[in-house]
Amino acid sequence: MARLFIPGPTHILPENLNAQTLPMIGHRSEEYPVLHGSIVENLKTLLDTQNDIFILASSSTGCMEAAIRNTVQDRVLCIVNGAFSERWACVAENNGKQVDRLEVEWGTAVTPEMLEKCLNEADYDAVTLVLSETSTGARSPIEALRKVMNKYPKTLFLVDGVSIVAGEPVKIDHWGIDVCLFGTQKALALPPGLGFMSISPSALARAKTVKNRGHYFDFLNLKKYADRNQTPATPPISLMYAAQNQLRRIIEEEGRTQRFLRHVVMAKRVREWGKQYFELFTDSQYLVNTITAFRTPEHFDTAAFIKEARILGYILSNGYGPLKNKTFRIGHMGDHTVEDIEEMLSAIDSIVKKQLTLTPLTHEAAYC
Questions:
Q1: Beta pairing, strands 291-295 & 327-331
Q2: 8 Å CB contact between 155 and 125
């Protein structure tokens, strides 16, 4: 079976897949709060937070909507530097909010000066930030941005950590993040279907003032149940078994520091290999340790390259949206090892060399 080296879903260890086969329990049983509580406590450790953690049967896009519906009454500033940050702006618009976009070129990130200028010019209920933009592999400089946000305490800081949590340190309390959302299928290396959200006291206080929060994603109702390690609606218990096992592995066996270091080494190796043939798409000062996007030359058949890699047993990602066939992405995240990365790079190296030795004319003929 071909192995996933895409920016999610990622390869899942057999023991985590097997954990899903544990006997079913009722979500109102005595056993359930133990399962729920163990996940919450390990997530708090992973994320360096004392904030509430909500567990949702949802994709991360649902969590985006939850963050908007509960914290934004009128106006939101959406930082947009790729496809998923644009998605969050669209979610806000589709929920009837006034959206201002702070847009920068894909593959780059917004600077503190840009953010401060916008916050000086208008009052916002919240700012949305995709910390690691999955479409480009750009990591926003949150350490500097949070210093700006600290000057505007009435403006909540909403952060998408989808493709960075469990691959790099995410320091929720230190960075003053009011809502951090992410799913299971990327650097956490779990099956899709669970959404996690950390919620600050300020975000909960805001929710009390916001009308039309909806039902399924109402922070106040989620909080009422979370206080007793429960969910308002039926949770995906099999997925939670896998999450419980994986979080225990990360915290107690591999260790956070070692996991983050492994991601640094994998990212460095992928980029060392790729720079022999391609340019990095993403500005080098904004690289995340979980994803690399390479810009392909005009005569390079990106789709054919990805197809051939799959035949060899390695699934890579084409560019996202307008970047399709202009870039490709390698996901070096989750439970891949450095040895896995070396094996994959060795296999695809010959495909790249073959394509790049073709002239544009012969290449065009080969794939017509």
A1: antiparallel
A2: yes
Three-state SS at 277 = coil
pLDDT tier for residue 246 given thresholds of 50, 70 and 90:
very high
User: What ranges make up the beta strands (E) of the chain?
Assistant: 3-4, 52-56, 75-80, 98-103, 126-130, 132-133, 138-139, 156-160, 179-183, 195-199, 279-280, 291-295, 314-315, 317-318, 327-331
- Sort strands 291-295 and 279-280 into parallel, antiparallel or unpaired: antiparallel
Q: What is the pLDDT of residue 368?
A: 33
pLDDT reported for residue 364: 42
Q: Which of 205, 222, 203, 225 is nearest to 214 (CA)?
A: 222
Distance CA 106, CA 101 (A): 14
Report phi then psi at 292, rounded to 5.
-130, 130
Collapsing DSSP states into helix, strand and coil, what is residue 236?
coil
**Model pLDDT for residues 159-178, shown as the tens digit of each residue:** 999 999 999 999 999 999 99
Report the mean per-residue pLDDT for the chain.
Answer: 96
Give the three-class secondary structure for 130: strand
Alpha helices (runs of H) in 190-255, residue ranges in sequence order? 201-207, 219-226, 237-248
Residues 338 and 344: their CA atoms lie apart, in Å, by: 10
In the block, tokens 């959200």 appear at 197
Length of the chain as a residue count: 368
